[in-house]
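Standup notes, protein team

Yesterday: finished cleaning the Macrosiphum euphorbiae set.
Today: FAM86 N-terminal domain-containing protein structure.
Blockers: none.

Input for FAM86 N-terminal domain-containing protein:
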Amino acid sequence: MGITMVDCLNNVMVRQFMCATQLAAIDFKNISKEVDFILMILSHPMLQKYPLKTLYITRFLKAIIIQMENNGNELCDDLYLKYVELIQNESNEGPFYKHYILGNNISNELTESVITIQESTSIVSQGTTGLCTWQAGIALSCWCLKNQDILKDKFIIELGCGTGLSGISACLNCSPSEYWFTDCHSAVLNTLKHNIQINETHHKFNCKYDTIQLSWNDIEDLKMFEKKKPDLVLAADVIFDDTMFEPLCSTLKYFTNNITTEIILFCTLRNSETYTKFLATLKKYDLHFAQSVLPDNYSIVLQQNCPIYIIRVQQNAIMS
Ligand SMILES: C[S@@+](CC[C@H](N)C(=O)[O-])C[C@H]1O[C@@H](n2cnc3c(N)ncnc32)[C@H](O)[C@@H]1O
């Protein structure tokens, strides 16, 4: 029997390939059906229209070729031909995309099973960190899927939303009443809008949503919440630049003035000094917090080289 798209999209290596997981984190040892799966995905119109970075694909195919040679497997011509075709096109400058298969709700239509995100391949580009998706953002996207009840019917604000993966995952899977994607950077907001548009053509957004320019440095930006208070404030990977801690905590403090607003932050612990400094800033703003760490192997699309913390923030008076 021929291979189906469902078999293909359920495969671990395919999922890792589609979101351009670092090669070092992929187990190439036991390749069998994977070669056919990868060739099938690569020729799909979705990946032709929204391609992964060419250099990533050629390195990935090279890793497969080397492993097959080491295993003494016969190499198929299609694999070599694809590899040769792509190395001639390596200087292609994009735009490039990643395709996230987060849950187990796989359909035979590739477009219905993935969230497609245009991403920069550098961690800082156009003066912002928001044009690529960060690990805590991927973690938040997976957490939304596993905690749909926490988001259902809620008015949610996301701070520093970047490319929009977490928010798109929440809108598609969790039926919030409303979701506001916010970020301070115009280029980030433009990419975000593009990403929402791509995914809207293949998925039904189950809520109202908006994209809003909001800077933690500008207290005026918070005026829009005077009448309409969020039930839930989310943010991922916003704790890395200590010059931002005071404005961020001041923004969080503003939201905690409404006692029913919950705040949940996802944070990758890359540098424990920076992390400790952020917790000290929360205390300085009289904000109470509870931390938990994401379990290992939370999702196969996530690289948990560093621990990912979930921090729940509240007014001190409520928690104590
Ligand atoms: C490291 S990125 C994380 C993006 C996304 N949450 C993710 O996890 O992929 C940090 C984000 O915070 C935004 N940001 C940085 N400083 C900000 C500020 N003062 N006000 C609002 N957003 C800010 C950046 O534009 C960027 O999108």
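Follow-up from PR in the comments: The chain has a mean pLDDT of 93.
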